Amino acid sequence: MHLFHHIVVFSLNEEEKRAFLEAGVEFTRTTKTSRGETVMFEIGEDDPRYERVTALLKSLGAERFRDSSMTTPTLRDWIAKMVAAGGERLKQEAAMLAQWERGREVVRQSTELLKSGKQEEARQLLDPAIAEAIQGNHSRWASVLCRCAAAISQSMGDRQRQIHYEEQALPFATDYGFAAYNFAQLLLSDGQLARAEHYAAEAYRQSITQTADADRDLITAILRQWPNVAQGA
After folding, report:
1. Within 116-173, where are the H helices?
2. Structural domains of the chain sorted by starting position, each given as residue range(s) with its CATH number in brackets
3. Model confidence pTM above 0.90
C-alpha cells in the first residue's frame, strides 16, 4: 500500500488554480478569500498525477500549502478510521482537555483575535499558555496549543516559527512516527536536509516496532525518500 496525502493550498490565483485543474486535480473544497482561493484535495502516492502535483506544490513554496499523510484515500475515511479505532481514547482526551480551563480560554481569545485579523497578537497569546501547559503536564493541551500556533505562523508565512511550534508539539504526539515523518517533510521543504533525515530516522525507528498496516506504509514511504535510515536503526 501507498500513503495518501490531504493537501491544503492557500491563496491560489486563477493561473495557479488552472494549473492544478489541468494536472487532473479534483478539489474537495474551495474557499474564496481576499488573497485568492484556498483549496483542498486528496491524492495517493501511487496516483499517476502525483509527481506533477508535487512539482506544482514545490513551485508555490512550502508556506503556500500544508501536506498531511494518511493511510486512507480521503480525509473523511481517515477521520472515521481514527474515531472507530480510538473512540475510548478520544473520550479520555476530551475529558483531559476539559480539565484545564486556562487552555480553553486562551484558544477562545486567540480565535477572536484571528477573526479580527490580528494574527501576530493571536500567536503571541499562545506562547505563555504553551509554557504553562508543558510545566503543568497538560500534554494534550500542549499539543493543541503548539499546533494552533504553528497554523497561525504558517498562515503568516513565518516558516521558522512554524517549525519551532511543530517541534515543540512532537513530544506530545499520540502517533509519534507519523508526527516525526511530517515534521521531517516540513524541514525538508525548508532545506534543512540533515535535520529532516534525523527525524525521518526517528519515525523509522518508531514504526519498525509496530505491526499495524499504517506503520508498514509509513516505513515504505520513509525508505523511498531516505533509504539510508535503515542502516542506523
Report:
1. 119-135, 139-155, 159-169
2. 4-76 (3.30.70.120), 87-174 (1.25.40), 175-233 (no CATH)
3. no
